[in-house]
Write a structure and sequence with these properties.
Elements lengths: L8 H4 L5 E5 L3 H11 L3 E7 L5 E7 L2 E9 L7 H13 L3 E6 L3 H10 L4 E8 L2 E7 L5 E7 L11
Parallel strand pairs: 1-4, 5-8
Antiparallel strand pairs: 2-3, 3-4, 6-7, 7-8
């Protein structure tokens, strides 16, 4: 008797489709991600119970929804408060974004008022700059190199 080949999780999971970024104000963050970073607005609905589903997408990667959401249920209250404190302190990580020209992107976003933690700097994996979104989340801008990276590159 012949059995069907087993499907592995690796073959069933086809891609990453949603990432959530915790923000302080959904409307202000939606405006930041669309007007400043060039994302497109996608969904913006309020569900029963008041939960707001607001997503933006990058025009070059429309299959990846970035869900802009305020910390809240179903997370326990103590975690929600910790996330809000982390946002206030600028300690939340947001997104890593590939760019064609890190220096030019740094200059354009700086002119738009984006706060940078680190100007463009050479790294083994490419040129990297760190900035914050309007909620204080870290955004990593990377102009990747096409060279393979090894652990010794970081020494």
């Amino acid at each position: 008797m012949r059995t069907a080949p087993r499907r592995s999780v690796r073959n069933m999971i086809t891609n990453i489709s949603i990432v959530s970024v915790f923000v302080k104000d959904v409307d202000e963050s939606k405006q930041f991600y669309t007007d400043v970073l060039g994302f497109d607005a996608k969904d913006d609905i309020t569900l029963a119970g008041g939960y707001r589903w607001c997503t933006v997408v990058h025009p070059n990667q429309p299959e990846l929804l970035v869900n802009l959401t305020i910390p809240g249920p179903p997370h326990p209250p103590e975690l929600v408060e910790a996330m809000k404190r982390a946002l206030d302190e600028g300690g939340m990580h947001g997104l890593g974004l590939n760019v064609d020209d890190c220096q030019a992107t740094f200059e354009e976003l700086s002119a738009k008022g984006v706060v940078f933690i680190q100007p463009p700097s050479q790294r083994p994996y490419g040129t990297e700059a760190l900035c914050r979104d309007n909620s204080g989340n870290w955004l990593v801008l990377v102009q990747p190199t096409d060279q393979p990276v090894t652990a010794s590159d970081f020494e």
